[in-house]
Design goal:
The protein is mostly helical. Helices cover 68% and strands 3% of the residues. A two-stranded antiparallel ribbon has the order 1-2. The protein binds fe (ii) ion (2 copies). GO terms for molecular function: oxidoreductase activity.
Length: 307
C-alpha cells in the first residue's frame, strides 16, 4: 500500500479478514469419521502444529511485553508509537490463529482418540499455561527481530500447508487446510506492509531491523511454545520432499524469504539465497532431535537446546 497512515493498513487487513473469513460450521464436522488411513497418518504428524497455532496468543503477549520493557527503559517514545500498528493488527491476527488452533486440535484429537471432545477438554488454565505464559522461557528476540520472525514464519506456514494440502484426499479436510493456508498467505502480506510502514515512519527503524535480520530469518515465532522443535523434527519429511522435480518447501521458503528481504531493504540487504539456505541448514542441524529450546543469556544465539 502506498501513502499509508498505518491505520488504513489495519482497516485494509481488517476488511480482508472479514471478507475472507471461512465458515467453520460451528466446528461441527461429522466428516471426521470418514477420514482414510493416509489422511489420518498425515494428521498424526501435525499435533505440534495446533500448539503452534494457539501460541499465536503468546506471540502477541510477548509483543506487548517487549514494548512495555522498552518503554520502561526509556526507548524513544515516537519510535515505540510506530509499533502501535502491530498492536492494532494483533486484534485481527490473534483470532485467526486461534481458529487454526481449534481446527487442527480438534482434527488431531479425533484421529488420535476417536473422540470429539477436544474443545470441551481444554481448560483455560491449561490454555494459558501452554499458549500464553510459555513465552517467559523463550525470550530469544528483540522487538525488531520478533516482528521479522512473524513475517518470515508466515512464509514457512504457507509453504507447509501447501504441501500438506497436496497429499490430503478428503475434500472437507482439504478445504480446512486450504483455508488455513490462505489465511497464512494473507498474514505474509500484512506483516510485510506493517513492517514497511514502520521502516518508512522513521529511518532509525531500518537500522534496528537490519541488525536483527539473522535472528528474524530463521527463528520461527512459534518457537515460543514447548513442542515447536518436536513438531519440526516430526514434520521435517514434509519440508524436504520435492516431488516430480518440483522445488522442495525449503527451497521455496528460502527463495521467498530472499525476495521479501529485497523488497523491504533493497540494496541494504546483504544476504543471498545461499546465505539464507545456510542459516536454515545450520539451524536445522543445531536443533535436530532436540526437544526443548530455552532462553539463555550465556550462549551466543540466546538459545540453549536441551534433550
Ligand atoms: Fe496459523
Ligand atoms: Fe499466520
Amino acid at each position: 500500500m502506498e501513502n499509508t497512515t498505518g491505520i488504513d493498513t489495519i482497516v485494509h487487513y481488517g476488511w480482508l479478514s472479514d471478507e475472507q473469513r471461512w465458515d467453520a460450521n460451528r466446528y461441527d464436522w461429522p466428516w471426521l469419521g470418514e477420514l482414510g488411513d493416509v489422511d489420518k497418518n498425515i494428521i498424526l504428524l501435525l499435533d505440534c502444529l495446533s500448539d503452534g497455532e494457539f501460541s499465536g496468543q503468546a506471540s502477541i503477549t510477548q509483543f506487548y511485553n517487549l514494548i512495555f520493557k522498552l518503554r520502561e527503559n526509556g526507548f524513544d517514545k515516537d519510535l515505540l508509537s510506530d509499533w502501535g500498528e502491530v498492536l492494532a493488527y494483533a486484534n485481527i491476527i490473534t483470532y485467526e490463529e486461534f481458529r487454526h488452533g481449534v481446527s487442527l486440535g480438534k482434527i488431531f484429537n479425533y484421529v488420535k482418540t476417536g473422540k470429539d471432545d477436544f474443545i470441551s477438554n481444554l481448560s483455560i488454565r491449561t490454555y494459558s499455561e501452554k499458549y500464553i505464559w510459555c513465552f517467559e522461557d523463550r525470550q530469544y528476540w528483540s522487538l525488531y527481530s520478533y516482528a521479522l520472525a512473524h513475517l518470515f514464519a508466515e512464509i514457512v506456514n504457507t509453504e507447509l500447508y501447501k504441501d500438506v494440502r497436496s497429499v490430503i484426499s478428503h475434500p472437507k479436510l482439504k478445504s480446512v487446510v486450504s483455508n488455513i493456508m490462505r489465511d497464512e498467505a494473507r498474514h505474509i502480506k500484512a506483516w510485510k506492509d506493517i513492517i514497511k510502514n514502520i521502516i518508512n515512519a522513521d529511518e532509525r527503524h531500518k537500522q534496528f531491523f537490519l541488525e536483527s535480520i539473522s535472528e528474524g530469518l530463521v527463528y520461527h515465532n512459534a518457537m515460543v511454545h514447548e513442542t515447536f522443535f518436536e513438531g519440526q523434527n516430526k514434520m521435517l519429511p514434509l519440508f524436504l520432499s520435492g516431488e516430480d522435480g518440483k522445488a522442495s518447501a525449503i527451497e521455496r521458503i528460502c527463495k521467498s524469504k530472499y525476495n521479501v528481504l529485497n523488497e523491504l531493504f533493497g540494496e541494504n540487504n546483504i544476504y543471498s539465497i545461499d546465505d539464507i539456505k545456510k542459516f536454515h541448514s545450520d539451524f536445522l542441524i543445531k536443533s535436530y532431535g532436540k526437544k526443548r529450546a530455552v532462553y539463555s543469556k550465556e550462549v551466543s544465539n540466546k538459545i540453549n537446546f536441551i534433550g
